[in-house]
Design brief:
The complex is a heterotrimer of chains A (306), B (327) and C (380). Chain A has a domain of 207 residues. Helices cover 74% and strands 3% of the residues of chain A. In chain A, strand 1 and strand 2 form a beta hairpin. Helices cover 71% and strands 1% of the residues of chain B. Chain C is of the alpha/beta class and 380 residues long. In chain C, strands 6, 7, 8, 9, 10, 11, 12 and 13 form an eight-stranded mixed β-sheet that branches. A five-stranded parallel β-sheet of chain C has the order 2-1-3-4-5, with helices on both faces. In chain C, strand 8, helix 9 and strand 9 form a beta-alpha-beta unit. In chain C, helix 3 packs parallel to helix 4 and helix 12 crosses helix 13. The chains are: A mainly alpha (306), B mainly alpha (327), C alpha/beta (380). Chains in contact: A-B, A-C, B-C. Chains A and C meet through helix 1, helix 4, helix 10 and helix 11 of A and helix 2, strand 7, helix 8, helix 9 and helix 10 of C.
Chain lengths: 306, 327, 380
C-alpha cells in the first residue's frame, strides 16, 4: 500500500472521528451533568439533517441550512427537555432507556409523516465541492477538510465554554455536586435545559454537515448513535477530553481496520475469501476495541464514575 | 392473598382460556399470536432475573436470544439437508428433535452468558449497559457477514421441529409446549427468588458491601444470575425460531435487546409476571395499532412514554401497588 | 378494570377476521414494507399493484395489505395470518430477499401461489424453486450480469467492484463477474448500512481502474454517489437501477447525472401499456413511477390475466395460465422460463434531467431475452 493512500485513509479516519465527536460531545455532556442516558440523541441528528435539507431546498443557501439545523435541533431539544426529559433525571437508567427509546419511535415516524418515505436532497455548496491538492500529492475533498476544521473549532469552543465561562463553571459544578449548585441559588432547571439544548444543537449540526455527503433519510441517526455511545464509553462518560480522544481512536480504528485487515488476510488466504473475512472482522472491530478498553479500565479512559 | 398474586392467577388463566377460545372459534392466527407472546414473555422472564433480581441492566440479551435461535437453525438445517455438522474428529449430526435443540440452546447461550458475564461484570452502571450492547453488536455483525448459515438473508427451516408424541405443526399443540415451558420456568423463578441464592442476590443489588461482609462474593452471585438469565433467554430464542421456522441476524440486533427490555419494564421490573404482562400487552398493541395507520409507531411511542412517566412500576405496579418483597 | 378492557380489546381485535372467504372471488395477501427504513419501495409496489387493480375495475378480486416493517419475523407472522385467518389464495408484495426466503418456501409448501414483485434470491430460482412461485421482477443476479455485459461493450478492461458484505452483495459481484471479461482492479465488501465511503473511494483512486461497478441499495448508494462526485474522480461509474430509481434519484441530485445503470424497465420503453401506465400513475399519485411501481403493476396484471382464464381453486389450470404470461407488460416482451423466472431484455439507462426532475433515459440494450443461470438446477 502506498504512503499516499495511507495518508488519505488517516485523514478519512480523522474526519469520521471529528464528526463523531460533535455528535458525542452533547451526549457525554448531558450524561455528565444530568446523569441521563439519551437514546434519542440520534433523532436530533436526523432532525438537524432534515431541517437543513428543507431550508437548503427553499433558499439554496448552505449557511442558512446549517443555522436552521442547529436551531431546529436545539429548539426541539429544549422542548423535549421541558416536556419529557426533565421528569427522568431522578429515575433509574432503565426508565431513561425506555422513555428515550419511545422518543425515537415518535421522532422517526413523525419525520416520515412530515417529509415522506423517500430520502431528501442536501448537497455540498459549490464553493466547497471538489478536491484540493495537499502537500505530498494527496487529492482530498475540500468539504471533508472543512468538516475536520469545523469539528476542531467546535471542540475548541467547547473547551473554552467549559473552562472560561460562567456557564462552564456551572456545568462543571453540576457534574460534581448537583445539590450544592442548587443551594447556591443557580436555577438548575434552566441550566439543564441549556445544556440539553447545546447537546441537541451540536447533534443537529453534525446531522446537517454529514447529511450533505450522505443520505438524508429516516433512521439515519441510529447507527451514528450507537457509534457515539461507543465513543463516550471508551472516553469515559462525562469527559469532553475523553470523548475527543476516543472519537478519533474510533474513527481511525474503523477506517484503517477496514483497509488493513483485508490486506493482511490476503497474505495467507485466497483473495475473495480474505476480502470477505477481513470485512467481517473489521465491522466488529470497534466493539472489540470498546470491550477491550472496558475490561482493562472499567470506567473508560478518562471516566470518573459509573 | 395479595392483589399481585390474584393478578398473577388471572393472567395465568387468561393464558389458558384465550388460546382455548381461539381454538374453539377456529382462529389459528390468534393462537399464533398468543404463542408469540408466551415465547417473548419467556425471553423477558430470563432478562428479569438479571434485571429485576440482580439489578444488571443488560442491553445485550439479544445475543442469547440469537444464539438460541441459531442453535435451532444450525441443527435443523443440517438435519433437513442430511449433512452432518462435523465429520471429524467425531461425527455430529443435525437434529429435528425439540428437546435436544433446547438443550443445545440452553448450554450454548449459558456458555456465552458466562463468558460475556465474566468480562462485563467488571463494570457497573452505564458502562455495563454499554459493554453488553457491544457484545450484542459483535455477534450481530458476525452473523450478518458469516455466509455459512445465510448471513443477512437468514436461514429458513421448512418444517417445524418435532416433539415426541405431539404434532407441533398444530398451532394449539405448539402453544401447549411453549406454555408448559413458561409455566415451569416461572415456577423455577419463584423458587429461585425465595432461595438463599435469590435472597443473597437481592441483597447484593441493594447493598453489595453488606453481602461481602458475610463472606459472599457479589461478583459470583451476579455472574450466576447473568448466566441463568442468558440460558432462559436462549431457550426462548430457540422456541421463537421454531415459531417462525426461520432465524436471521435481526434476532441479534440491539432493537431486539431493547424490545425484550420493554416487555420487562412495561409489565413491571422484578415482578414474577411482569414480562408476561408486558409481552402480552406489547403484542396486543402491535396488533391493534398496526391496523390503524401506517404511522402506528408514533402511537406506540407515545403510549410507552406515558407508561414510563405516569405508570411507575409498570402495569402490575399500577394495578397491584407496591409488592411486599419489592423495595 | 384495566384487565377487563384488555380482554374486551382482544375480542374486538379478532372480529374482522371472522368474515368468511368468498368462494367465487380471489383473495390476494400483500405483505410489503410500508413503515420504517425502505418503506418507499413497498409503497411503490403497492401503488403500482393497486393502480392496475383499480383500472381493471373488477369485483372478483380482494386485496389485503399488511406492513412487514422490513422484519423477517413480522413477515412470517403476517403470512401465517393471511393463510390461516384471511384464507388468501395468492401472496405477493415482499421487497427484500431475506424476507422472501423466510416466507415463500412455507407459503408455497401450503399450496398457495406466490408472485414476487421484487426479490429474486438464487435459491428460489434454482434448487429451492417451486411450481407455485413466480417471479415477475428479475432473478437477483440479472441486473448485475447486465452491468458486466455493458462493461464489455463499453470497452472497460479494468473494473473496480464493490458491494455490501451480505449475501445479496456477494451475489451481485458474482453476477457482474459472470459476464464481465476484463481484469479486476479491485474488489471490496463494505459494511451493510455503511454511510461513509471515503476509504473505499481512496482505494479506487489508488487502484488505477478504468471503471467502477457498485451495488449499494438505498441510502448507501446515495451516500456513495455524492461522495464519489465530490472526490473529483473521473472514472465512469456503472450500477444497477436500484441506486438510480425515481424515488431516490432526487436525493442524489447532480451527482448522478450521466451515470449509466442497468434496468429491465424505463419510463420511455415504447409501448402503449407503458405509456398509459406512466401517465395514469402520475395522475393518480402525483409522482413519476419507479421501477418498483412498474413491477407491482405488472404483477397485478399477470395475476388478473390468469384469473380470466382459470379459477384459482383449480391450481393446475391456474398455474398454466400464469406460466403463459398472457398480459401486456410495461416492459414489452415478457415470458417465463422453465423455473418461472422472467426471460426479458435488460436495458442500459443514463440519468438525465427533465426540467427540474432527475430521471432515466434508455440508451441501449445490455442483454436480450435474458434468463438466469440457476434455471438448470430447478426441478419441479
Amino acid at each position: 500500500m502506498s504512503m499516499i493512500l495511507l495518508a488519505e485513509q488517516v485523514l478519512n479516519g480523522l474526519q469520521l472521528g471529528i464528526m463523531l465527536f460533535v455528535m458525542a460531545a452533547g451526549l457525554t455532556l448531558v450524561f455528565g451533568v444530568m446523569g441521563l442516558i439519551n437514546l434519542a440523541h440520534g433523532s436530533l441528528f436526523m432532525i438537524g439533517a432534515f431541517a437543513a435539507a428543507a431550508v437548503a431546498g427553499a433558499t439554496g443557501s448552505f449557511v442558512l441550512a446549517l443555522i436552521a439545523a442547529l436551531s431546529a435541533a436545539a429548539a426541539v431539544g429544549a422542548l423535549v427537555e421541558v416536556v419529557v426529559i426533565r421528569r427522568l433525571y431522578n429515575r433509574d437508567h432503565l426508565d431513561q432507556v425506555l422513555a428515550t427509546f419511545a422518543l425515537i419511535l415518535i421522532f422517526s415516524e413523525g419525520t416520515r409523516w412530515l417529509f415522506g418515505s423517500f430520502p431528501l436532497f442536501l448537497n455540498i455548496p459549490s464553493y466547497l465541492a471538489g478536491p484540493v491538492s495537499l502537500p505530498g500529492g494527496i487529492e482530498y475533498p475540500l468539504y471533508r477538510l472543512t468538516l475536520i476544521a469545523v469539528g476542531l473549532l467546535i471542540a475548541l469552543g467547547l473547551f473554552l465554554l467549559i473552562s472560561r465561562t460562567r456557564l462552564g463553571i456551572q456545568i462543571r459544578a453540576g457534574e460534581n455536586d448537583r445539590e450544592m449548585i442548587a443551594a447556591l441559588g443557580i436555577d438548575i432547571s434552566k441550566l439543564y435545559t441549556i445544556v440539553f439544548a447545546i447537546g441537541a444543537g451540536l447533534a443537529g449540526l453534525a446531522g446537517a454537515l454529514v447529511g450533505a455527503i450522505q443520505s438524508v433519510q429516516v433512521g439515519m441517526g441510529e447507527p451514528v448513535l450507537i457509534l457515539a455511545f461507543v465513543v463516550i464509553v471508551i472516553g469515559g462518560i462525562g469527559s469532553i477530553k475523553g470523548a475527543l480522544i476516543a472519537s478519533i481512536l474510533v474513527g481511525l480504528t474503523d477506517t484503517l481496520g477496514g483497509v488493513l485487515l483485508p490486506a493482511l488476510f490476503k497474505q495467507f488466504m485466497e483473495a475473495s475469501a480474505a476480502t470477505s473475512a477481513g470485512s467481517s472482522l473489521s465491522s466488529m472491530l470497534i466493539y472489540i476495541l470498546m470491550a477491550g478498553v472496558l475490561i482493562v479500565r472499567p470506567t473508560g479512559l478518562f471516566g470518573a464514575r459509573a | 392473598m395479595t392483589r399481585e398474586s390474584l393478578f398473577n392467577i388471572v393472567m395465568m388463566s387468561l393464558l389458558i382460556l384465550f388460546p382455548l377460545w381461539a381454538w374453539i372459534a377456529d382462529e389459528p392466527f390468534m393462537i399464533t399470536l398468543a404463542t408469540k407472546a408466551v415465547i417473548l414473555a419467556l425471553a423477558g422472564v430470563g432478562l428479569n432475573i438479571a434485571l429485576g433480581l440482580g439489578g444488571l441492566v443488560s442491553l445485550g440479551h439479544a445475543a442469547f436470544f440469537g444464539i438460541g435461535g441459531y442453535a435451532m437453525g444450525i441443527l435443523a438445517s443440517h438435519a433437513q439437508s442430511y449433512s452432518p455438522i462435523l465429520e471429524s474428529p467425531f461425527l455430529i449430526e443435525g437434529t429435528k428433535s425439540m428437546p435436544v435443540i433446547w438443550l443445545v440452546a440452553i448450554i450454548s447461550s449459558g456458555l456465552a452468558a458466562l463468558a460475556i458475564g465474566v468480562l462485563s461484570l467488571r463494570t457497573t452502571g452505564v458502562y455495563f449497559i454499554m459493554i453488553t450492547l457491544a457484545f450484542g453488536q459483535m455477534l450481530f455483525f458476525f452473523s450478518i457477514s458469516w455466509p455459512a448459515y445465510g448471513g443477512e438473508d437468514g436461514l429458513p427451516i421448512y418444517v417445524r421441529n418435532g416433539f415426541p408424541g405431539l404434532n407441533t405443526l398444530d398451532p394449539i399443540q405448539f402453544y401447549g409446549i411453549c406454555f408448559a415451558i413458561l409455566a415451569v420456568v416461572l415456577f423455577f423463578c419463584a423458587r429461585l427468588a425465595k432461595s438463599p441464592f435469590g435472597l443473597a442476590l437481592n441483597a447484593a443489588r441493594q447493598t453489595a458491601e453488606r453481602v461481602e461482609t458475610v463472606g459472599i462474593s457479589p461478583y459470583r452471585l451476579r455472574l450466576a444470575a447473568f448466566t441463568i438469565s442468558g440460558m432462559i433467554t436462549g431457550l426462548a430464542g430457540a422456541l421463537f425460531a421454531d415459531l417462525n421456522r426461520f432465524v436471521s441476524p435481526t434476532m441479534f440486533s440491539w432493537q431486539t435487546s431493547g424490545e425484550i427490555m420493554v416487555f420487562v419494564i412495561l409489565g413491571g421490573v422484578a415482578r414474577l409476571f411482569g414480562p408476561v404482562v408486558g409481552a402480552a400487552l406489547f403484542i396486543l398493541l402491535e396488533h391493534l395499532l398496526g391496523g390503524l395507520s401506517d404511522y402506528w409507531h408514533i402511537y406506540l411511542g407515545l403510549l410507552l412514554l406515558l407508561i414510563v412517566l405516569f405508570a411507575r412500576g409498570g402495569v402490575i405496579g399500577t394495578f397491584a401497588g407496591k409488592g411486599a418483597n419489592h423495595d | 378494570m384495566k384487565l377487563k378492557s384488555l380482554a374486551l380489546a382482544t375480542c374486538m381485535a379478532s372480529l374482522p377476521f371472522a368474515a368468511l372467504a368468498d368462494g367465487h372471488s380471489l383473495k390476494v395477501g400483500m405483505i410489503t414494507t410500508l413503515s420504517g427504513g425502505g418503506a418507499g419501495l413497498g409503497i411503490d409496489v403497492r401503488d403500482g399493484f393497486m393502480l392496475a387493480v383499480g383500472q381493471a375495475d373488477r369485483n372478483d378480486i380482494e386485496v389485503v395489505i399488511e406492513d412487514d416493517q422490513r422484519k423477517p419475523e413480522i413477515a412470517v407472522q403476517l403470512a401465517d395470518k393471511m393463510i390461516q385467518s384471511e384464507k388468501v389464495d395468492v401472496l405477493t408484495g415482499i421487497i427484500w430477499s431475506n424476507l422472501a426466503m423466510a416466507v415463500v418456501p412455507a407459503a408455497v409448501a401450503q399450496g398457495k401461489f406466490y408472485l414476487s414483485p421484487n426479490a429474486g434470491p438464487s435459491v428460489l430460482a434454482g434448487k429451492g424453486c417451486n411450481e407455485n412461485y413466480f417471479n415477475v421482477a428479475w432473478q437477483n443476479d440479472n441486473l448485475h450480469e447486465a452491468g458486466g455485459a455493458y462493461a464489455n461493450t463499453a470497452g472497460y478492461a479494468n473494473s473496480f467492484i464493490l458491494a455490501p458484505n451480505y449475501p445479496a452483495g456477494q451475489d451481485a459481484l458474482t453476477g457482474y463477474k459472470r459476464m464481465y471479461e476484463g481484469e479486476l482492479a479491485g474488489e471490496l465488501f463494505t459494511k451493510l448500512g455503511q454511510t461513509d465511503y471515503a476509504s473505499e473511494i481512496a482505494q479506487i483512486r489508488a487502484s488505477g481502474a478504468d471503471s467502477v461497478y457498485f451495488f449499494l441499495p438505498g441510502g448507501m448508494g446515495i451516500a456513495f454517489l455524492k461522495q464519489y462526485a465530490d472526490s473529483g474522480l473521473e472514472i465512469p461509474v456503472v450500477g444497477p437501477a436500484f441506486s438510480f430509481d425515481q424515488g431516490i434519484l432526487q436525493a442524489v441530485g447532480d451527482a448522478a447525472l450521466g451515470v449509466v445503470n442497468t434496468s429491465q424497465w424505463g419510463k420511455d420503453i415504447d409501448n402503449a401499456t407503458n405509456a398509459q401506465f406512466v401517465e395514469t400513475f402520475q395522475a393518480e399519485y402525483g409522482r413519476l413511477p419507479s421501477l418498483y411501481a412498474s413491477q407491482g403493476f405488472d404483477t397485478a396484471n399477470l395475476l388478473m390475466s390468469a384469473m380470466d382464464v382459470a379459477d384459482v381453486n383449480d391450481a393446475d389450470a391456474f398455474r398454466t395460465a400464469l406460466q403463459a404470461a398472457d398480459f401486456d407488460s410495461t416492459r414489452g416482451a415478457f415470458k417465463f422460463g422453465s423455473n418461472n423466472h422472467p426471460i426479458q431484455d435488460i436495458y442500459v439507462r443514463e440519468v438525465i434531467k427533465e426540467g427540474d426532475v432527475y430521471t432515466n433515459k434508455i440508451i441501449g440494450t445490455a442483454l436480450t431475452e435474458h434468463s438466469d443461470v440457476y434455471a438448470a438446477e430447478c426441478k419441479f
